[in-house]
């Protein structure tokens, strides 16, 4: 579990970077379309530790 301000700060900034990268160069009239799982992950990353649960990994390994 993330328990330090440094870890939470890094996770927050990484979530913001991921969202901005997905939104990069889109026209202002166009919404960024992302999967529900990715949206939940970004929400978790940018929640600043307010969530009391951990989002399970949605990765698929071959």
From TrEMBL:
It comes from the Eukaryota. One of its GO terms (molecular function) is actin binding. Its main location: membrane. One of its GO terms (cellular component) is plasma membrane. GO terms for biological process: actin filament network formation; actin filament polymerization; actin nucleation; cleavage furrow formation; establishment of meiotic spindle localization; Golgi vesicle transport; polar body extrusion after meiotic divisions; protein transport. PROSITE patterns: KIND. Residues 1-21 form the signal peptide. InterPro entries: KIND_dom, Spire. It is a peripheral membrane protein. Residues 1-62 form the KIND domain. Belongs to the spire family. This is AGAP008101-PA-like protein. It comes from Anopheles sinensis. The lineage of its organism: Eukaryota, Metazoa, Ecdysozoa, Arthropoda, Hexapoda.
């Amino acid at each position: 579990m993330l328990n330090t301000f440094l870890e939470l700060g890094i996770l927050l900034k990484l979530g913001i970077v991921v969202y901005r990268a997905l939104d990069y160069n889109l026209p202002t009239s166009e919404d960024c379309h992302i999967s529900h799982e990715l949206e939940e992950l970004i929400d978790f990353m940018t929640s600043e530790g307010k969530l009391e649960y951990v989002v399970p990994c949605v990765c698929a390994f071959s």
